[in-house]
Amino acid sequence: METTSDFLNIKDVNTAFKINGKYYDAISHINLTVHHDEILAIVGESGCGKSTLATTIMGLHDPSETKISGEIDFEGTDLLKLDEAGYNKFRGAKIGMIFQDPLSALNPLKRIEDQISEVMTYHTKLTAEQKHNRVLELLKEVGIVDPKRTAHQFPHQLSGGMRQRVIIAIAIACKPDLIIADEPTTALDVTIQAQILDVLRKIQAENHAGIILITHDLGVVAETADRVAVMYAGQIVEEGSVEQIFNTPKHPYTRSLLRSMPQRDNQNDDLYVIQGNVPSLQKMPQIGDRFAPRIPWVKPEEHEKNPTMHEIEPGHEVRCTCYKSFSFPDQVGSVKA
Amino acid sequence: MSLVEIKNLKVHYPIRSGFWNRITDSVKAVDGISFNIEAGETYGLVGESGSGKSTTGKSVVGLEKITSGSIMYQGKDITKKNNRKELDYNHDVQMIFQDSLSSLNPRKRIEDIIAEPLRNFEHLSKDEEKLRVLQLLDIVGLDPDALYKYPHQFSGGQRQRIGVARAVATNPKLIIADEPVSALDLSVQAQVLNFMKKIQREFGISYLFISHDLGVVRHMCNNIAIMNRGRLVEIGTRDDIYNHPVHIYTKRLLAAIPETNVNDRKEHRANRLAVEEIYRQQQDKYYDKDGKAFPLVPISPTHSVALPKEVAEQIIKQEGEVKA
Question: In this protein, which residues make up the domain named ABC transporter (chain B) (predicted)?
């Protein structure tokens, strides 16, 4: 297998959903690359299209209800051109997925061992004994203390953190090159969350996999990711290394998000509130900057007519030119990007 | 006198088993906790899932039958029905729930949802009632046309604000907020938190703020209690808990909060792993032989920790040396 550094290239991908007979874009013109040995975080509020992007890569959309265009180049294959049977060769084998809710992602009637070995039955030619050994090995790898016992249990007998570990074990069973983790720790306690993120990082380092980490928690991103893409209303509005995004955020949306977090230095003040709401699919503005309605004090001429991504440093890209003169109304003139 | 004084509260659920389905054991969801809530303050109750924090909240509102202990409100024990009536307790104490969708009746219009507590406790004419509901909508920043809509027509943040409007409808003195923002996005969370602070300033409401999110709790609460396995392990002011934690469980929780400062992430992680290691090795020092937390011992006028006195002093001394 050839190992080029960037093995997943998403080029100009649009996914549109059919609502009342008309198609509306949930994500539009997404360009992203994922490299081996990196964790790419995708952040944004709910309704920004993060999960749609994940399910588009996994090919989980019903073709009669969605229209997808563009190209997803995964190690030389365009995933979007594959039929269902072709896709099944990738899902679970080369692409693993970790879901948010570990209880509903596991089959309640099957023992943990059977659920993990199921993937290997589909994608490998291992014997029963080899599979059994691999299951124990996987459970150990994700940090389960007594793999033999856990392998024999049912999902309801495990705690939330343990279940999420089992989901990770299933996702990595066939050593995928790409792991998509959709809010893997949202349902978990902070201490368990920290452990799960450690497991993800360890697995990524050992398998040289690329991980797409989808989350709304900026703290998780800052602690885990190597690169970050910020999504708003179906578009990527800023992309860069984790240092670039957190130390020198440029796009008004990124800056607003960071400012609305409760932090050590604003514990007695009111938090910053982003005006308005994320637009729904039907009401998505088709021209102009989609974030403009939420920063109404910025003059229209400071936005681009058709906002595109601008590279401001190597690896750091921002959509629209309004970032240049943007400042919050209560800090006018004090901080400028 | 504090507004609410909780003394040695216990809530045990029976486990039945065997041939006669007799009570063979019990789950000690809340096992002897005491704390006071002052008028006009926000008291934070923090813990992981299963620590008993929601059970405590429900007991204070009266949704949970308590096993023993007392909850004193204005000097009277409200676990007794007669006292609740006398004090108008159900009128003065309201609750905000975590899941705004399931806590609003899908078949009722917003007008009826917000007016329900008013209809229960205050006898207003139709016009007065409508005026009051409109006022409440205005306080939470919703348009008057929300009156005739149904819960599903609102976004999560708007629904949570409707829940808040319903909770403040009777001008309560205490609101129990059980994870009020954990289902919300960052920007909406900021809205709801700001708003909760605003009505506190205006109406002098006290909150019992139950949450697992230490970042939000730091922002909202003056006094904080950390709960673990049905017991309190540490109580103190915000400064005590965040800057001088003593119990290993508190330290572990604090170390696990993800920080947005990317430049120190290596140190932060090393610190977390170190605390985790101490937690694993020295568990028996911090918990008694049944795995329960020790009784709380005061180490300063505001700060108490669940450790034998000698151990607590030893830890504080050690930390002083490390810093010096």
Answer: 4-254
